[in-house]
């Protein structure tokens, strides 16, 4: 029969083994990234669907895969009209046997959000990531009458730490009040 001290010692050893079985040992003061994920994230495909669009012209929409580096996301869109109301619709899908919606799902009116950030954590998270990825595009209204050129990368820090491994699809749609 085990005594209480022996059981606690066994549990402590078991926890230490589980903690270090996923990767390297971190020392104090070292930057710790992605501790909860023993895998990496990468973008492998970008599709701009349903082209040609009614109100914009897509000049470039592709991903450049690079060896030993993050994929480069390249998007260039010409927006001839000026918009004072712009919506961002987003939905994250996880692939079980087919793609199913997973947790991150919503719509944000970008112009009203730019005037004063809200207390909705999902909106703050999504627009914070977009602000870092697309600094030339995400700004207060009005939008349009120019060409938006973005070359960016998707960093692992942008993803929630609790994401399980697997295949994901992120649908993002920019819309005006007319479409």
Characterization of the model:
This protein is α+β, with helices and mostly antiparallel strands and 179 residues long. It has a domain at 57-176. 20% of the residues lie in helices and 34% in strands. It has three helices and six strands. It has helices at residues 4-20, 110-115, 121-133, and strands spanning 57-64, 72-83, 86-95, 99-109, 143-153, 168-176. The strands form two sheets. Strands 1-2-5 form a three-stranded antiparallel β-sheet, with no helix packed on it. A three-stranded antiparallel β-sheet has the order 4-3-6. Strand 1 and strand 2 form a beta hairpin. The radius of gyration is 21 Å and the shape is globular. The model is unreliable at 1-34 (pLDDT under 50). Residues 1-23 form the signal peptide. It comes from Anopheles minimus.
Distance between the termini: 71 Å
The shape, in one word, is globular
What is the CA-based Rg, rounded? 21 Å
- Structural class estimated from helices and strands: alpha+beta
Find the count of extended strands (DSSP E, 2+ residues): 6
Largest sheet: 3 strands, antiparallel
Share of helix, binned = 10-25%
Mean pLDDT: 77
Number of helices: 3
Low-confidence stretches: 1-34
Give the strand order of the largest sheet, numbering strands 1, 2, ... along the chain: 1-2-5
Strand content: 25-35%
Summarize the helix and strand pattern as letters. Answer: HEEEEHHEE
């Amino acid at each position: 029969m085990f005594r209480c001290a022996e059981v606690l010692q066994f549990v402590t050893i078991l926890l230490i083994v589980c903690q270090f079985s996923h990767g390297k040992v971190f020392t104090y003061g070292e930057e710790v990234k992605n501790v909860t994920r023993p895998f990496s994230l990468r973008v492998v495909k970008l599709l701009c669907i349903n082209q040609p669009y009614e109100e914009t012209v897509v000049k470039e929409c592709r991903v450049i895969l690079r060896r030993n580096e993050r994929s480069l996301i390249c998007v260039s869109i010409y927006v001839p009209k000026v918009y004072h109301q712009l919506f961002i619709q987003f939905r994250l899908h996880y692939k079980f046997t087919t793609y199913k919606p997973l947790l991150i799902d919503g719509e944000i009116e970008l112009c009203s959000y730019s005037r004063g950030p809200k207390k909705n954590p999902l909106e703050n998270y999504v627009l914070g990531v977009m602000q870092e990825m697309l600094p030339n595009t995400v700004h207060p209204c009005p939008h349009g009458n120019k060409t938006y050129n973005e070359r960016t990368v998707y960093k692992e820090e942008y993803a929630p730490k609790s994401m399980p491994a697997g295949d994901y699809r992120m649908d993002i749609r920019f819309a005006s009040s007319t479409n």
